């Protein structure tokens, strides 16, 4: 089974990138000085790198192995040798950290099918302490956090759209 980042997050990120390009074009109509291009370039690069990271992020389940591919490389976690499971809450998502005797890997809750990954791990893991950690996961909280990321991307797109509409308006 292969899992990738949720499509709605990717679509909103791509739309944001397009809006940032339009915003950069709108800056040419303003008198903000030469620093405006530096700011637009930095914003573009940050969003572009984030999209690349989202596109590369893949989780594959093969029997008792979980393969995680990210910008930082590839990791393989053997679920039969799992030593630790922990959850790291962030503002817009939750990261699940899996560690075996050789590696550790992070799996983002923005992965489509995150709940299926957690359920699969529950079916393989035998250690009671690890199962207790997995059973404490509240998918409703994770879904709420993912919705907040999506809403944040919508708001960010609206702000960028308002900015370039304003720039086109005052530039004329």
Distance between the termini: 54 Å
Number of strands: 7
| Global shape | elongated
- Tell me the Rg in angstroms: 20 Å
Q: What profile does the largest beta sheet have?
A: 4 strands, antiparallel
Low-pLDDT regions:
none
* Separate helix tally: 5
Q: Which sequence of SSEs, written as H and E, runs from N to C?
A: EHHEEEEEEHHH
Which structural class do the helices and strands define? alpha+beta
* Strand order in the largest sheet: 1-2-3-4
Description:
α1 runs antiparallel to α2 (35-56) and α1 packs parallel to α5 (139-170). This protein has helices spanning 7-27, 35-56, 114-124, 128-135, 139-170, and strands at 2-4, 58-62, 65-70, 73-78, 84-89, 94-99, 104-108. The model has no long low-confidence stretch (mean pLDDT 89). The radius of gyration is 20 Å and the shape is elongated. The strands form 2 sheets. It has a 4-stranded antiparallel β-sheet. It is an alpha+beta fold and 172 residues long. The protein has 5 helices and 7 strands; from the N terminus they run βααββββββααα.
